[in-house]
Specification:
The protein has 8 helices and no strands. With 213 residues, the chain is an all-alpha fold. The relative contact order is 0.12.
């Protein structure tokens, strides 16, 4: 309840590399690592039940996404250390094109996977609230807001060229330094929550058997 929201906020903040200066970017990244370790320690029960129980579509997706996210985060930290010019400067490791590409690849995949990961938890977090909205006057209003978030998220995803970063079509990440930080972070949040709502919607349909007709 405490660790996860802090991790989420730090991750989103770190996406604004051009907004946070290099030194603070590294410091915040280092702060994220122990939280990442604590997160996995607190979820040790999930690892212990991997080979127990029945496997459903959602559970299988959980495992795939969680392990992909784990490797993406590790890739971010390793490449971050290799590229460090402040916190790990004493290691005297020269920055190479490999470390830059690894950081770009890991960051873009980690960002997208975090949105999907959050969406897989939405049923537990918001499921009862969605049920309360059913057949109420607010139901369609809430779904309209969600639709607009997804729509803006798709636009922001394309605009920020995350699809390009995920397949390494570019060697460097180009930022719009003239863009308002508020607009930038609104775009990042729309991508994350858009992916979350899409994931929640797809898994809900599958669990209800809509795809088996």
């Amino acid at each position: 309840m405490i660790v996860d929201p802090i991790m989420f906020i730090l991750f989103v903040l770190l996406m604004g590399y051009h907004i946070i200066c290099d030194e603070y970017h590294e410091i915040l990244g280092v702060c994220l690592f122990p939280l990442f370790i604590v997160h996995h320690i607190l979820n040790d029960r999930w690892y212990r039940t991997l080979f127990k129980g029945k496997y459903t579509f959602t559970r299988g997706l959980f495992i795939i996404v969680n392990f992909m996210l784990l490797f993406a985060i590790l890739g971010i930290f390793v490449s971050g250390v290799l590229m460090s010019a402040y916190v790990f400067q004493f290691l005297d490791i020269p920055t190479t094109s490999f470390s830059r590409q690894l950081h770009l690849l890991s960051t873009s995949w980690g960002f997208v996977l975090m949105g999907i990961h959050l969406g897989l938890h939405l049923n537990m977090m918001l499921g009862k609230y969605f049920k309360k909205l059913k057949n109420s006057i607010f139901e369609y209003f809430v779904y309209l807001i969600i639709f607009l978030i997804i729509l803006f998220g798709v636009y922001a995803f394309i605009k920020n060229r995350y699809w390009s970063d995920m397949v390494l079509l570019t060697d460097f990440k180009f930022f719009d330094y003239g863009q308002s930080p508020i607009v930038f972070y609104l775009e990042q949040l729309s991508i994350i929550f858009g992916l979350s709502f899409l994931t929640y919607g797809i898994t809900s349909l599958v669990n209800k058997g809509k795809f088996h007709q």
